[in-house]
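Q: Here's a chain of 207 amino acids. Please give me its 3D structure as tokens.
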Amino acid sequence: WVGNLCKKSGMIDEAIKFYETARDTEVTNQEVRRESMMYSLYISDRHSKGRFRTRILEILGNLYMKKNRLTDAEACFKEIVDLQSGRSKEKAQVNLAKIWKRMGKENVFVEELKSKVANDPCDAELRSKYGQTLLRAGKLDEAVEQFKRAVELSGEDLSVRLKFAEALAKNKQNAKAIAEYEKVFHAGLKRGKDQFRRGKGGDETEP
């Protein structure tokens, strides 16, 4: 609580000290529940300590980045990647990509996925993940190429084509991005109509 107050007041060094103490202190379930109630969060006992630690690490990692303590920030976000899955892990990977870029280091996740794609080049989902990781690393041209290949491999998967359109837009290829967005829109519209007709037993009449 004091660390959060310091952070909001712009007292970054003081906030770091409090959050480092929170990180290095073993908390009880009761303390975690109290913290959860303060921030209107629901955290079950089973996941409470892990999620509480993740939250502390996220805040501390971002504070370290503000002070250009990149090695310390890197350690925080690496721990989150090991602890969590889903949105928290994705956010940590994004922050690690930023840190490694500032440090002049190669993105570990890019290299890992590059190797996996080389071993399984026809896996559309894997190429899509590789493209997303390249985007986070700021490698836009390479990301576009991976999404393009993923679209070719995925057939009717509109989510992959949508990601391809988003990558094109981020790479300032606006005309191509618009064309892909239109394909997604028209394919989605057609799919909706087909589902409606099947539900009506082949009746072409729409509401």
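Q: Can you summarize the key feature?
A: The radius of gyration is 22 Å.
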